From TrEMBL:
InterPro entries: ADF-H/Gelsolin-like_dom_sf (IPR029006), Gelsolin-like_dom (IPR007123), Gelsolin-like_dom_sf (IPR036180), Villin/Gelsolin (IPR007122), Villin_headpiece (IPR003128), Villin_headpiece_dom_sf (IPR036886). This is Villin like. It comes from Pundamilia nyererei. The gene is VILL. Belongs to the villin/gelsolin family. Pfam families: Gelsolin, VHP. Residues 742-785 are annotated as: Disordered. Residues 771-785 have a biased composition (Low complexity). CDD domains: gelsolin_S1_like, gelsolin_S2_like, gelsolin_S3_like, gelsolin_S4_like, gelsolin_S5_like, gelsolin_S6_like. Residues 784-850 form the HP domain. GO terms for biological process: actin filament severing; actin polymerization or depolymerization; barbed-end actin filament capping. One of its GO terms (molecular function) is actin filament binding. GO terms for cellular component: actin cytoskeleton; cytoplasm.
Amino acid sequence: MSTSIYELVNVQPKESLFSRMMNENNNAFKNVRRKPGLQIWTVNKMQMDPVPPQAFGNFFEGDCYIVLYVSSRQSADIHYWVGRTSSQDEQGAAAIYVTQLDEYLGGSPVQYREVQGYESPRFRSYFKNGLIYKKGGVASGFNHVETNAYNVLRLLHVKGRKDVTATEVEVSWSSFNKGDIFLLDIGKAIVQWNGPQSNRREKLKAVLLAQDIRDRERGGRAQIGVVEGGDERSSPELMKFLTTVLGPKPAQLKEATSDDVPDSAQKNSVRLYHVYDNSGNLVIQEVAKQPLTQDLLKSSDCFILDNKGSSVMVWKGKKASKEERQGAMNRALSYIKAKKYPASTTVEVMAEGAESAIFKHLFKSWTDRDQTQGLGTTHNVGKIAKVDDGKFDVMELHARPELAAQYRMVDDASGDVKVWCIENLELAEIDPKTYGQFYGGDCYLVLYSYKRAGQQQYILYMWQGRHATSDEIAASAFQAVNIDNKYNGAPVQVRVVMGKEPRHFLAIFKGKLIIFEGGTGRPGVVNPAKDARLFQVRGTNELNTKATEVVARAASLSSNDVFLLKTDNISYLWYGKGCNGDEREMGKAMSDVLSRHEKRVVMEGQEPAEFWIALGGKGSYASDRRFEREEPLHSPRLFECSNQTGRFKITEVDDFAQCDLDEDDVMLLDTWEELFLWIGNSSYEYETKEALNSARDYLRTHPAGRDPDTPIVFVKQGYEPPTFTGWFNAWDPHKWSDLKNTKLNKTPVGGGGGGYRAPGGPLTSPPPNKSGMSSSSASSLSSSGAGRFFDPELLVNKTPDELPEGVDPTQKEDYLSDLDFENLLSTTRADFQRLPKWRQNDLKKKAGIF
């Protein structure tokens, strides 16, 4: 244990204030709902005032807010949000209310402190359309947002392409810059100005925010128009509107500003501190640094975990005193001050048994309360169902992708297999009779084909021998690209490091997977002769068994396993005392593959002298009784890997769903046993390369001491296997493939400017004129059946009876907006390019927009 100790004086909460608020507000939480959903309060004159749902996402900079989120699994998170100009009294009151609310809910919620502009991914995930920072606060007259109120004049500066924030700024051209998006809101009309250096994703996010303002604050009655910066001449009516409010547009606007928040993470390691009271002073003593183990946490105490300075987490033991638990948040803030970390440093407070996923990920292993233990069992991970170790129905895997994800099995391994070896940097087909035999001096490509829902699917494994040359490893990657191209980019690519073979890889060789330590399997090459070879056999059935060559010495033996010792004249099948009947049966089957010699069964403790002579003499080995192993319980985590801002960065996506997979980027999904790299159709090659490097660094530097050879699986958009989709709730397999079945006949509709549409909602209203009302041409479109636009999901693959009212089933393409049609088309452009030339030309003529 480290002797580093901090003593912080007078950091306990003001007990008198706490007690007074508890007595005065013992009825404050009677209206707190325990059903799933979001509830928000603002602190006004030391009282909690509820915020109406139509105002959710709006935060006054001079106020503090309390946000309660209850999930469908009844877990709760409490956030208190600190505005940039809020007072110390308001911040203190909010912190006390959070403590009270935590006690009211039984002490199980995770508490978060959020600072304006530095909100956590989880907090931002509640507000999918973005956060709006408003000037002033309760003291300036705010009560609530009134629906249908039009006496508004404000300019919102919108930043971000995934986590959007909109800040009220001076209503002037001087607030504009070339890289961001600005919304001029006058109540009955909202005009969006897109900076010429902003990208498509940012523009769409801003439209969603504008529509959210229209629908929640204006009852859906406000008009929305869009102006492209640098091409203002194309929107003369809207520019007249802007210049009327803002004055003439200057010739030059400010240059773009970076969206990146400065990285405040320190360069030190993850550290755990014990927190306790010493005569009124808070003492923080270092306990350990990464990798951390769960047994360091004691139920009788509270601990602070410092995540490299990027966040500070407080863990409250069940048996810690009430004073210690109530003062947890204050202690974290005092620690931040003592370490001189930024005031914006993220703070999380959690109780024993209610730890957050990120907290668990910082430990080498983690076992939850009531978690089943035992060899070969798996456990409940988030929404993934518990499964048993044994036979399974392939149809069940296809029907329930969450089981496929949990098993790491796309099917029952009954598909077709083809294997190549790298010879002279080229592909050489392997004789099917030797399938399953892999030599440490070679590299192999294994193509597995199977069908799901009648569609052909592929997995391409790249197995790299431990002793293969760098040229051979590079050649295997190059040849994998060639095979991938041959199958039009459909294969899921999996990098397999020798000895780290994933479960499905074992299964496809039906209990006959043999890993030779060195040498080569190339025809005509004679491997060096050995007096004896020793193979360790692990597995209980043909889906999980492999034999791995180990050093032929007594020290390689283990009482838990089966071993095959192969000599020139005889082979010994050695059964350790800890192996079971299934393991012995698989060992016997594997021995028939490895050796044609006479086999002699040897039980541990009954070895003949010749057995030890072949191993170079009798010696000690791992003979302890088999321990029941605990499978680590870790929730999956999703990260966005993007170069959109000009600098490659990785950002976590909290409470993720399929809609968070950004086609412009590469996404990293960490399921602990595997890393998935999801490649969006519009991502850059540079992002893919950097994402792979970052994935390796992620494993290498993970504070839990992760295995750097954890399999990395490449998944392309539109070709996701169930082992990937199973980690997402309600995966839609048609999300990116609907356009393939859509009639590409786009007929221009309407007059003047068109619009943008949020998923599932109507097109934004046509551009307002100078008075803020729609133009006559737009009005005529709105009054007729034409000019209405719908989400493609409401149109594609629908029978006439299933279509929205008024839609002509023979002209469904007319009900897609121009932008939405082009955006959808861009997501499948790679598929289009794979079509025959005659088909491409035919579609070009029909679409008229290529």
